[in-house]
Amino acid sequence: MERRDVLADAAIAVLARAGSRGLTHRAVDGAAGLPEGTSSYYFRTRSALLQACVDRMAARTLSEMASGAPPGPATVDGLVAAAVATVGRWLADDQERLLARWELALESTRRPELGAALQAAGARVRERVAATFAALDITEPERRAHDLVACLDGLAFDQLAGAGAPRDTAALRAAITDVVRGFTGAP
Amino acid sequence: MERRDVLADAAIAVLARAGSRGLTHRAVDGAAGLPEGTSSYYFRTRSALLQACVDRMAARTLSEMASGAPPGPATVDGLVAAAVATVGRWLADDQERLLARWELALESTRRPELGAALQAAGARVRERVAATFAALDITEPERRAHDLVACLDGLAFDQLAGAGAPRDTAALRAAITDVVRGFTGAP
Predict the structure, then answer these.
(1) B19 shares contact with chain A (CB less than 8 Å)
(2) Local confidence band at A46 (pLDDT 50, 70, 90 cut-offs)
(3) From the CA of A20, how many Å to the nearest CA of chain B?
(4) Which chain B positions have a beta carbon within 8 Å of A110's beta carbon?
(5) What pLDDT, in 10s, does the model give residues B9-55?
(6) How far apart are CA B120 and CA A163, in angstroms?
(7) The pLDDT value given to residue A102
(8) Contact B179 A182 (CB under 8 A)
């Protein structure tokens, strides 16, 4: 892996573990197991470090989307299953990326330049969902895809950082089923 | 207003504007227009300052819930209207509280002691929604109320810090209508 990517991954891990406040060049060097000064050589400012995080996260999302299985037959049940699998994978394997993404999203309210890469990655995820909605002949597919992803993100936020104890898999599946049915108009 | 509440409100404003990283005693004194040293007299540590923010936010939410109009006749349309009004008010008047709450929620993943007050306030909001679900004879009212609030929070997050341009009022109303109908099983 390229040195820049190693450092960006370490920065994402620091963001998730210690928050935006904990993101320093020194912490990134430590997390990457590299000598002090390495991350500031590649990313001179804290702003460059934040930009490296969003660029790296966006690149990983886009590469996963490109290598993912093509969408199967478009059915509401298939969409529910895909949504359950996606949120389940976020929560099981990608907690660090989720927490870092929310830190970066909040940071982007103060640094709009961070927003562009986050939006590009988010748009690609939503396009895939919109294509499924369109194949199901659901009206307003882009609007509904955007909103469904926002809701799934809200359920994941609630699960990891939310106002209650984390739910079990069955409860999460029930929630996602309700939401997808709301957006697809399925009974 | 009590001095402690003035300082807690100032800390919430600082959190929203500058993030967890910007939350320092000096910044809080400045935002409150009080002499340097005031906030550290009332809240000695940064941890005490964070706790003051969550306690203040929880107290405000609970007082709003207590003084709010009693729920009207329970209908799905009434629930949609209430949800649209609530999210609209969050986005119009309470952006600062929303951004601060998300900062605190992420901070609570690292400081579990902050979670208790956030959860108490969140539980009260959800109880009111659950009562409406129960009045509508919807099964699993508590589970569905919890999930609906998480989704509305996700739509608000998307609107303020999300992966796309903010939507207009009509689009937001359409999104909330879809979500509420998903959780109520209404066509």
Answers:
(1) yes
(2) very high
(3) 6
(4) 17-19
(5) 999 999 999 999 999 999 999 999 999 999 999 999 999 999 999 99
(6) 8
(7) 96
(8) yes
Q: Model's pTM, two decimal places?
A: 0.94
DSSP state of B110: T
Q: Is A47 on the interface with B (CB under 8 A)?
A: no
CA distance A124 to chain B (A): 10
CA proximity to B180, closest of A182, A10, A128: A182
ipTM for the complex? 0.94
State whether CATH 1.10.357 applies to domain B54-184: yes
Cβ neighbors of B153 (< 8 A, separation 6 or more) are: A154, A157, A158
Residue B52 to residue B7: CA distance in whole angstroms: 9
CA distance B98 to B159: 11
**Partner-chain residue, chosen from B143, B158, B185, that has the shortest CB–CB distance to A171:** B143
Which two structure tokens, joined as six digits, stand for B53? 């923010």
Is the sign of the CA dihedral A19, A153, B119, A172 positive or negative?
A: negative
pLDDT at position B168: 86
| A115-141 residue pLDDT tens | 888 888 888 889 988 998 999 999 999
Q: State whether A187 and B185 contact (CB < 8 Å).
A: yes
